[in-house]
């Protein structure tokens, strides 16, 4: 019996060491495969027209981030203040910058932490701003369905990002290159 336990310990110690190096790389790959284009497309919907659209968000940006405030302003974004503009611009830039940092593995822990915050705010906005409270969209934990967009899917996103916060970028990252220097 001791031989089996010893063998078990040796095998899984090797797997744990390999996992410490490979799990973050796989988490970054999964993020790129599942969420990179999702967030970049979402960011593109928030940019205004033309070259100066980087500094002038679209009406869609305000409707996605501040739906109730925009409705109260009669869908006239110019009625919203500097605070609203700054939040919309920060959210828009975050949808481009944070995913890019995660994929290339630069400042990965901070970028993943920022993305966790982003997912939480996104989810709260969906529920309280857009009223996404139907069971199909919201979902429920500990039920027999795994397809709820907000509670089920986004919990898995946060788990994936938590791996990056705790383990870092792993192999093949700019963080690893900079650490070696």
Automatic annotation (TrEMBL):
It holds the Pfam family DoxX. InterPro entries: DoxX (IPR032808). It is a multi-pass membrane protein. One of its GO terms (cellular component) is membrane. It is found in: Membrane. Keywords: Membrane, Transmembrane, Transmembrane helix. Its main location: membrane. The chain crosses the membrane at residues 21-40, 82-103, 110-129, 155-178. The keyword Glycosyltransferase does not apply. This is DoxX.
